[in-house]
């Protein structure tokens, strides 16, 4: 699949009910600043950088990334990745439902080592530059999980689950207790940002104005724009266009619809503006993109 197309798709499968784990190997396109658009999901994600450098943004926190950096992303937290144009930023992500590790009964293991993390009473280290022995061990285990998933040899699922438990143990032993309540305003920003993103995804086919969003979410235009960018590292208009182009790329790939029709279907009433915006994100025209993936 074309890398630019993969980059713009935010909804990726994270395994299935029988084996709720997936590993995504990503070679991001260094012609983009935005490497992974702002999104969230129910599953836990543990990410390892394999090449290059950049930044990851989790809620309103940002961390520098380099080879072997490990990032733990809890369930339902906003996250995105950016990188300097021309600089590689490649990584793999182990994404899994916490139910994959849960006990079948609410025993002491479930209560102390899983429920406390889910409730964020226990906070795992979010950002790891492997230095100490336990951090290097986590890195080794993640690399082993990646290899097992690729090879899919006999009983690989069992071995992956065992290594995930080992990682969870190391993260728990070196975790901290959350003795402070997060500022209510920070939680409010996160939830409103999620609501705005959900609204954009639901209404991208229609005209969406900043005035409309400010009224809907009871915020001034200036305030909405400032905190949305602080959370997503993109302006509201950039995110709207980014998402519309991602959908139009999917339609160009999977349907034979006319380019002008696709532009209108994805909220672009002006074909010239659509072509200009498509070229900005994809560095080619829609027709060239269709030819390339055809």
From TrEMBL:
SMART domains recorded: HTH_ARAC
Sorted UniProt keywords: DNA-binding, Transcription, Transcription regulation
Repressor is among the record's keywords: no
Name of the featured protein: AraC family transcriptional regulator
InterPro entries referenced in this protein's UniProt entry, alphabetically: AraC-bd, Homeodomain-like_sf, HTH-like, HTH_AraC, RmlC-like_jellyroll, Tscrpt_reg_AraC-type_HTH
UniProt xrefs under SUPFAM superfamilies: Homeodomain-like, Regulatory protein AraC
Record Pfam families: AraC_binding (PF02311), HTH_18 (PF12833)
Organism domain of life: Bacteria
Keyword Nucleotidyltransferase: no
A Gene Ontology molecular function term of the record: DNA-binding transcription factor activity
């Amino acid at each position: 699949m074309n890398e630019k197309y993969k980059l713009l798709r935010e909804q990726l499968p994270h395994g299935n009910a029988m084996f709720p784990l997936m590993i995504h190997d990503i070679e991001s396109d260094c012609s983009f600043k935005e490497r992974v658009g702002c999104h969230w999901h129910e599953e836990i994600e543990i990410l390892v950088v394999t090449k290059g450098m950049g930044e990851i943004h989790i809620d309103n926190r940002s961390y520098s990334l380099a080879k072997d950096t490990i990032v733990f992303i809890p369930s339902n937290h906003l996250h995105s990745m950016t990188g300097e144009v021309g600089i590689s930023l490649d990584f793999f992500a182990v994404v899994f439902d916490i139910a994959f590790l849960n006990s079948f009964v609410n025993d002491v293991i479930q209560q102390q080592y899983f429920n406390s993390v889910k409730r964020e009473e226990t906070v795992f280290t979010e950002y790891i530059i492997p230095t100490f022995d336990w951090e290097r061990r986590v890195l080794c285990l993640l690399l082993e999980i990646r290899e097992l998933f690729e090879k899919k040899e006999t009983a690989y699922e069992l071995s992956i689950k065992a290594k995930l438990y080992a990682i969870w143990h190391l993260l728990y032993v070196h975790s901290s207790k959350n003795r402070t309540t997060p500022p209510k305003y920070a939680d409010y920003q996160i939830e409103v940002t999620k609501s705005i993103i959900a609204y954009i995804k639901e209404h991208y086919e229609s005209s969406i104005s900043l005035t409309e969003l400010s009224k809907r979410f009871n915020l001034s235009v200036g305030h909405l724009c400032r905190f949305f960018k602080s959370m997503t590292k993109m302006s509201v208009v950039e995110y709207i266009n980014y998402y519309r182009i991602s959908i139009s790329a999917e339609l160009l790939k999977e349907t034979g619809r006319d380019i002008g029709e696709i532009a209108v279907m994805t909220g672009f009433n002006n074909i010239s503006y659509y072509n200009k915006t498509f070229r900005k994100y994809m560095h080619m025209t829609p027709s060239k993109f269709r030819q390339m993936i055809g």
